[in-house]
Backbone:
């Protein structure tokens, strides 16, 4: 396996390995739930926790106890995210509404209570990183960027979802939309990028932090879906994360048991939580991600408190949550709900607002993060000014490597000199020699390989 971790300002991971991942069969978790798929056939579903109701597509009325978080204003905020996704996908006649509908409570809890960011400076160095590994659910992040005051996504941009040259493409792209940390879409890629970011954070913290000054201490969060955990590369990167004990890495697994073809039982029967435990991760199960905000927030706090291993928060959700006829089915995964179903969902969730309408009180609440983020950055900058006075050499190296991404002037010459003197050798030995040269030139490079 070869990994390269970039500075925390960009944090990318490249991973290549050919290996088979061993998985454990998933035992029953006490209650089996049935569902009807988009094609109309009944399917056996993976078990869910006792007391949790997965919406059945054959049900025309939604269980009222599953519609509310217990806090009316929180319900309004969560449903605002849902309906921005629903309305944007509907206008585009294309997209993935189901994932944002199911993950809206978790995303709101994360952005509102835990994620550190400055909406007016998406490149604030010590921000927490958020990676939407399940990139097909891109309207989730676009809704959040708009609500929390990022300049990169306006309401007009949301209305241009999936249109040519828009800032809201069907899968998020970091070069087009500030606030998007990583371009995602190929399932499993984003969680690998998140592992690379967490490696970069750990490396930078070890390099530049001192007993008196904490220059880097950000968390890396990733939301991944069933497709992400099926992909082999996510297994490889997650195994490494456990081995490296990346305590600042928190992966949130959207366990909705639906793929584009129907129930994930068609292709998957493992116990994902047990697999991640075997990697050395802390695993926290949230059996009701539809309405139990307290459990979601407690799980994030528990994950943040664990410093010696990465955390997987397994959140059981309902894809297309709120849709009377398409929730919990593949029909809500990758296509617009349709005019009639959008109207039915508005009625089911008691959403009295027009398409793309955001309640004033929601925007007032979420935009308060602009002031909070600016204050967090100002506090960091004040600390860094003291750091520069006390540790001028470390501060200069940090600014050059991390802030500016500057390259040392002699690195190419060193590689050329190495090549000129090199004897014929196996590629792995040549690669090791090149990495040694680069490691001496770049203080922020991380490399390695599989045990061949």
Residues:
């Amino acid at each position: 396996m070869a990994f390269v971790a970039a500075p925390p300002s960009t944090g990318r991971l490249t991973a290549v390995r050919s290996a088979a991942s061993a998985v454990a069969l998933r035992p029953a978790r006490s209650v089996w739930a049935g569902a009807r798929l988009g094609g109309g056939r009944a399917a056996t579903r993976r078990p869910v926790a006792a007391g949790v109701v997965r919406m059945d597509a054959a049900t025309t009325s939604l269980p009222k106890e599953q519609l509310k978080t217990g806090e009316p204003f929180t319900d309004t905020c969560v449903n605002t995210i849902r309906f921005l996704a629903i309305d944007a996908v509907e206008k585009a006649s294309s997209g993935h509404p189901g994932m944002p509908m199911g993950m809206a409570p978790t995303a709101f809890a994360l952005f509102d209570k835990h994620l550190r960011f400055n909406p007016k400076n998406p490149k604030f160095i010590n921000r927490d990183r958020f990676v939407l590994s399940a990139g097909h659910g891109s309207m989730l992040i676009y809704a959040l960027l708009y609500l929390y005051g990022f300049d990169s996504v306006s309401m007009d941009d949301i209305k241009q979802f999936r249109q040519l040259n828009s800032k809201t493409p069907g899968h998020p792209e970091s070069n087009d939309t500030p606030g998007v940390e990583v371009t995602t879409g190929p399932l499993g890629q984003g969680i690998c990028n998140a592992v690379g970011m967490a490696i970069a954070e750990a490396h930078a913290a070890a390099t530049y932090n001192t007993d008196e000054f904490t220059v880097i201490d950000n968390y890396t969060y990733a939301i991944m879906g069933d497709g992400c955990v099926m992909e082999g590369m996510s297994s490889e990167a997650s195994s490494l994360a456990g081995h490296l004990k990346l305590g600042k890495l928190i992966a949130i697994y959207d366990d909705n048991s639906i793929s584009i073809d129907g129930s994930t039982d068609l292709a998957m029967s493992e116990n994902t939580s047990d697999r991640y435990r075997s990697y050395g991760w802390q695993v926290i199960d949230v059996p009701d991600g539809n309405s139990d905000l307290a459990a979601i927030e407690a799980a994030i706090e528990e994950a943040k408190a664990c410093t010696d291993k990465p955390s997987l928060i397994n959140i059981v959700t309902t894809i297309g949550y709120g849709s009377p006829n398409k929730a919990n089915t593949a029909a809500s995964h990758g296509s617009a709900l349709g005019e009639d179903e959008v109207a039915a969902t508005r009625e089911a969730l008691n959403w009295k607002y027009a398409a793309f309408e955001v309640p004033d009180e929601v925007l007032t609440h979420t935009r308060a993060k602009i002031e909070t983020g600016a204050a967090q950055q100002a506090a960091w900058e004040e600390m860094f000014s003291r750091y520069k006075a006390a540790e001028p050499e470390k501060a200069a190296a940090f600014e050059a490597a991390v802030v500016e991404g500057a390259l040392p002037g002699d690195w190419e010459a060193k590689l050329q000199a190495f090549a000129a003197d090199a004897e014929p050798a196996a590629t792995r030995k040549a690669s090791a020699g090149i990495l040694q040269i680069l490691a001496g030139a770049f203080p922020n490079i991380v490399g390695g390989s599989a045990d061949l």
Notes: The longest strand covers residues 249-255.
